[in-house]
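Lay summary. Proteins are chains of building blocks that fold into shapes, and those shapes determine what they do. In this project we predict the shape from the chain. Here is one chain we studied, written as its sequence of building blocks.
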Amino acid sequence: MLKDPDFKVVQVCKEDEGVSICSALYCTGHRSLLLMQYTGLLDSVNAIRASAMEGENPVCMMVGMLLKEPGIKATQSKHYGVRIVEPVLDAMGIEHHMIETPDAIAAIVPSIEKAYASEKPVVLLIGTEAKMSVMKRDECLKVLARHRTDEIVVAVFTAAQELLQIAPHELNYTFYGLDGPGFLARTRACAGEAGQARYPP
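And here is the predicted shape, written in a compact code that computers can read:
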């Protein structure tokens, strides 16, 4: 980005400095976009409160949701910092949008235009698109067969039958019954020597 002629990049030491700089740029007739992670957003709450909200400056922020799990709402994340971002913005009355799918990208330009028209800040939260493609079991077994060396593979029920057909090996352990304490004991013993991989996990 530093070498891109379409951008004028202003590097700052702290994110809250960026909030003040964006506010000042607006006062001089310039538009800007502040890039940071959610940790920087949380660290800049007071600056956003003073410069953007009370100062009525359209500070537009693009915020990376580092550690947010794909396909899970930010408020349901296992990471505390991720969970509180949207509630904090709601409490401050700041408009925000989660940009996590290709369709959501279309909301970026209108959101920025609205911010400048209303002289209010906006936060664009950048998440990660969920990957929904899932390999079939036989495809998984074929991949396993290509990469295994001396690992023990433990397969149960239908997977056991497919394993014997797709990837026969002397270290395959198969189990078809519902009660197998002896089988599990053998598996644990062997795992101590050669490692263990199980399918299904």
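What the prediction tells us: The chain has two domains: 15-126, 137-199.
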